[in-house]
Amino acid sequence: MSKDCIEVKRISEVLELPADDSTRRHVEACPRCSAILASYQGFLNEEITAGSDPDEADARLTAFLASEIGVLREEVRDAAGTKDHAWKDFLPRIMKTFYLRPAWVAALLVIIAAGVYGVLWWHPWTPDKTVLRGPSQAEVSQPLTLSTPQRISGEGVRLEWTPMAGADAYQVRFYDRNLNEIVRLEPTNETALIVGRSMFPAQLPAKLIWRVVALEQGDEIGSSDAASLEFP
Amino acid sequence: MTDEALARIVQSLVESEAGRAAGAELLGRYQRAVYLWCYRYVRDHERALDMSQEVLLRAWRALDSFGGKSKFSTWLFAIARNRCLNEMHRVSLFEEGEADFDTVQAPNPDPVRRLEEREYEERIYTLIRTTLEPEEQRAIWLRCFERMPIDEITWVLGIESASGARGLLQKARRKLRNALKESGDE
Given CB atoms, is B23 within the 8 Å cutoff of chain A? Predict the structure, then answer.
């Protein structure tokens, strides 16, 4: 092992470096680093070896994790999906539910309209006015952290977060306790906004989880920790 | 949601149901990979399951220390790799078979001896680099330092020759023995 060798837990970073990068060149030439990189790629490959029983292992390890962590993964998988499936599935589920039921659709539209009217009547701000302040260059800091939500008049809650260097927009996402995404707001270039209960589906859990994702040209470049949110 | 985002949820909401749910999801994504990796080393279903449980439990308990600077998958791989290394005997560099008892002892407490050992390791490292072809280097490293079974080396390195890693290792060891004789270190 030489002084240029890379820590095992950082070995995958090499794959993202340009071919002429000195670290990458080291890894390709070093018996230790190249062997560990090949080993890591084998780990991710999940190829089944004769004699193994991955399905039985899956079931037993799921049960083991449930007993150690206190949550059964199947519930989580259904709720959270493995990669942002929850939100993508939300609209089709709604469409399926209301398909060919015009009366339900009409009722839903009335409820939404009433909700929007309620928000505007009780909190007569335009969408632009909900934004409290934006980042200045001097304020830009890392990492992106959330402030404690502040209750304001009526049922509104003010959410605020620190700006993140390089971000040109922020997207606020809300989840239920099982990390099932409920609502994803339109990206904004501001660092604070006010949300109200009426912006969410009617069956809103008592406690939500929210986090902010920093975007640059539409790509995620960072995110905040998750935090709890409770409407008055 | 990415692994790293889930890890941050676990860290920030560790006492809550949401934090535990994120942890179960995150580790659940890799439980199969961990099991298959352990199985490759020990070729025994129950033993591989025991090792996998230890790896996942260690990861769950150490998630607070995951800084997010590396990928979660490499962080977990490092834990699984250590567990497998502990399970396997160290293999001699110059011939197939377990290393001599001396070489598997705990590090020597004497600093002078430690320095000598370190210098010896560096000479061996240089010998491997200067004597062997790149594929031979990787095979010998995986066998002797990663303690990987020979069939798994054949698979990891994608060796297609009939003798697989076994033939490659024999050739590499012959070269190393000759080089060591020539350098007068034997």
Answer: yes
Chain centre to alpha carbon of residue A84: 7
Q: Could you tell me the two tokens for B106? A: 């705990």
Chain B within 8 Å of A3 (Cβ-Cβ)? Answer: no
Contact B147, B85 (CB under 8 A): yes
The interaxial angle of helices B17-42 and A73-80, nearest 10 deg, is 110
The whole-number pLDDT of residue A134 equals 43
Superfamily of domain A103-230 in CATH is Immunoglobulins (2.60.40.10)
Residue in chain A closest to B69 (alpha carbons) equals A10
Q: Among partner residues A7, A10, A80, which is closest to B1 by beta-carbon distance?
A: A80
* pLDDT score of A76 more than 90: no
Contact A35 B22 (CB under 8 A): no
Phi/psi-derived region of residue B26, left when phi > 0, alpha when psi is between -120 and 50, beta in every other case:
alpha
* Domain boundaries for CATH 1.10.10 within chain B: 101-183
Does residue B159 sit at the A interface (CB-CB below 8 Å)? no
Q: In whole angstroms, give the CA distance from residue B23 to residue A73.
A: 9
- Give the per-residue pLDDT at B109: 60
Using omega within 30 degrees of 0 as the cis cutoff, is the peptide bond preceding A232 cis? no
Within chain B, all domains assigned CATH 1.10.1740.10 are found at: 3-87
Identify which of A54, A209, A223 has the shortest CB distance to residue B35. Answer: A54
The pairing of beta strand A192-195 with beta strand A157-160:
antiparallel
Structural domain boundaries in chain A = 8-45, 103-230
Q: Which two tokens stand for residue A188?
A: 């904004």
pLDDT for position B44: 93
Is the predicted pLDDT of residue A222 greater than 90, yes or no?
no
Question: Which residue in chain A has the smallest CA separation from B40?
Answer: A49
Which CATH code for domain B101-183?
1.10.10
Say what the pLDDT of residue B115 is: 72
Contact A57 B121 (CB under 8 A): no
DSSP string, B107-175: PPS-HHHHHHHHHHHHHHHHHHHHHS-HHHHHHHHHHHTS---HHHHHHHTT--STTHHHHHHHHHHHH
Residue of A nearest to B2 (CA): A83
B69 in A contact zone (CB under 8 Å): yes
CATH class of residue range B3-87: mainly alpha
